[in-house]
Amino acid sequence: MASSQRIIFHIDVNSAFLSWESVYRLLRDPQALDLRTIPSIVGGDQKTRHGVVLAKSGPAKAYGIVTGEPVAQALKKCPQLTCVSSRFSAYLDFSEKLIHLLEEYTPDIEKFSIDEAFLDMTGTLHLFGEPAAVAKAIRQRVKRELGFTVNVGIASNKLLAKMASDFCKPDMCHTLWDYEIPEKLWPLPVRDLFFVGSSAEKKMRSLGIYTIGDLAHSDLKVLKAHLGEKYAIQIHRYANGIDQEPVQEKEPINKGYGNSTTLSRDVDDYDTAFQVILSLCETVGARLRRDHVLCGSVCVELKDWRFSTTSHQAPLSTPTDSATVLYENACRLLKDFWDLTPVRLIGVRAAKITDEGFVQMSLFDTERNEKLEHMEKAVDAIREKYGIDSIKRASFLTAGAIVEHAAGRQKHLEHSRGHKK
What we know:
The structure is a single chain. The protein is α+β, with helices and mostly antiparallel strands. The protein contains 14 helices and twelve strands. Helix 1 (about 15-30) crosses helix 4, helix 4 runs antiparallel to helix 5 and helix 10 packs across helix 11 (about 230-240). The model is unreliable at about 250-255, about 355-370, about 395-400 and about 405-420 (pLDDT under 50).
């Protein structure tokens, strides 16, 4: 490892929702059964057999259960499977506690998602010791103080650190330095590379590209001709372990509230996109209400499988914390600018944040907004007490829905196969 080389850690919570649900229950009842020790999942409803698997335990994984599959299918694999509803507000609290712990090691932290974070340790590592020893200390502290486990990936950039943390799990630390790329990265299937989805994989397999090493040594001109210039250049760089993206500091809480999700398949129709937007607006609205703030504008972001990103923003007539209002405006905005080019990522962001006690309400919107406010706060209370899946919109009861009703997570760069939590 060169002395001038950056040192980046990627922290990834193991089976985040399942682990956090287990810890939540054990904190309230030390005699409770630890869900991590039995075949169990978070997500969906065992009685109705609706919904999808959001997270799974190790014993559930042994039955071939995978994140993202329908609950009904998971129950066929393991009839004795324990299904529990998610508790999103509690998971946010655990996520914040993790970030607070990590802030003791470096101020340069990027919260990549609710259960992942990048740490730039280049300027502070000398205060704590060698990379592997510091990573071990972090893992042990998280386990001892917070009750769950994490994987730590160590590398010279964000891409390699994230790839390293995906190696053997749980509660492990792995390195992926530049000199380790031929041995550890190149033999992996090309689908394992960050942001390589099924569409790109099929195109590459037709070109005889099966491993990340095959991609790294491919002719870039051929890749551009078949995959598009921007995307070809990006994944060719990734395959060679090249990534110059800095670890961005955390966004101030009052700058904006957003959520995005990478989809399990390309979306090219309004109905499916609207359902994804509704899922995202549910979680964004819940966060606004939790922090007692309102937003004055909404932004919709789209990213296709070639990394092309488009986004549009529009002001709201009245500041709001309502998921319904956000959804209605986001859908209108989407129809204004989307040409139905297939997309892999959809995001919704609320901005122009204002304290809810200092806004002037429109006389025309007041009555409707008050009804929405009472309804959505009542829903918040029910979900807080009985779990996030205890009440959901009817549109998410349809079998085969591409997202859960509040499953949108803050993953701006998560690749399509990344349903491992």
